[in-house]
Amino acid sequence: MALELIPLQPEHVPELARICHDAFASLHDRHGVPRDIADVDTAEMILSHVAGRPDYTGVVAVLDGRPVGSNFLLHADPIAGVGPITVDPALQSRGVGRELMRWVLGEAERRGIRATRLFQEAINTTSLALYSRLGFAWRGTAAAMQPTAAPADDPAIRPLSAADLVEVRRLSAAAYGFSRAGDAAGLLAGGIPGFGRERDGRLVGYRIVSLFGHAAAETEDDLLALIAHSARHVPAPMAVFLCPLHHTDLFRRALEAGHRTLKQLSYMSYGEYAEPPGVYLPSIQC
Predict the structure, then answer these.
(1) How far is CA 64 from CA 6, 81, 86, 89, 92, in A?
(2) Digit-coded pLDDT (tens) for 50-60
(3) Measured between alpha carbons, how far is residue 29 from residues 34, 59, 125, 126, 242 in Å?
(4) pLDDT of 97-149, one tens digit each?
(5) What does the pLDDT look like over 217-233, one tens digit per residue?
(6) What are the helix (H) ranges across the chain?
(7) Nearest of 101, 209, 94, 52 to residue 145 by alpha carbon
(8) Which of 16, 49, 18, 263 shows the shortest CA–CA distance to 142?
């Protein structure tokens, strides 16, 4: 039976969660790096979140009547994000991933999206070659980092809420060159914790935690304070963040603060691209 690509349905999530866990676990264990996804329950929580949001569109690869992989397009904001993409380890390197990536590029085109981005596992040379052949360009490298929690709460930092989305739009547009308020709204509505830092009565930085979250701030000091503060309030796996390595001072200061480098990821783009101009932490997708 030929490979089919079908729209994701809620009943697909449990099997896709197993595939997602197994795919990342086998890659990370093979290369001796910490796992992003500790267990199948965590994978199911992640996929349930993205599958339940209207600003994601998901597709399932089906072979001989059973799911063998999936991919997602995040289209909450002007620039789209890809993933998570996973393929059953037993069927990798057989063209399933290629078809899932072709689908996501076609979906972006159908939606009139002119710029799409993703983070690629630097240890996975197969996916690096695949994405490059499909037209993605390498733009930079980020370090996944495990933060050290601050010794005490920062009194200038408070929980982020939907009431802050206007300021999130301002801060993210200044940092990334485009608004990420749409994705921020979906993350907060899904129960993902966020934090905001204030100065002189206004928001000067925010961070939504987890690898799917993102951050933007007016200064590196604001961003580093948000990283250390948020690490006091969420489980260690959720506190992990991505630090763009071309922001050399930020990365050095993160190391000096005790934050530990776990691995590197490659930032890649398809279509239009402009370098983010400000102080930010990207999400795993964009």
Answers:
(1) 13, 29, 18, 16, 16
(2) 999 999 999 99
(3) 8, 27, 15, 16, 20
(4) 999 999 999 999 999 999 999 999 999 999 999 999 999 999 999 999 999 99
(5) 999 999 999 999 999 99
(6) 13-31, 40-51, 96-110, 125-133, 165-176, 181-189, 220-230, 236-239, 248-256
(7) 209
(8) 263
Is domain 145-281 given the CATH code 2.40.128.270 in the classification?
no
Query: Distance (Å, rounded) from C-alpha 131 to C-alpha 231?
Result: 33
Question: Which residues neighbour 187 within 8 Å (Cβ) at sequence distance 6 or greater?
Answer: 194, 208, 212, 213
Which residues are registered as beta bridge partners of 206? Answer: 196, 216
CATH 3.40.630.30 range(s) for the chain read 4-113, 145-281
Tokens of 95: 């063209």
- Residue in this structure with the two tokens 């002007």, named with its chain if needed: 78
- One-letter amino acid at 28 equals H
pLDDT at 1 over 60: no
In 10 A of CB 246, how many CB atoms? 14
4-113: CATH number: 3.40.630.30
**How many angstroms separate the CA atoms of 72 and 96, rounded?**
14
Tell me the whole-structure pTM to 2 decimals.
0.95
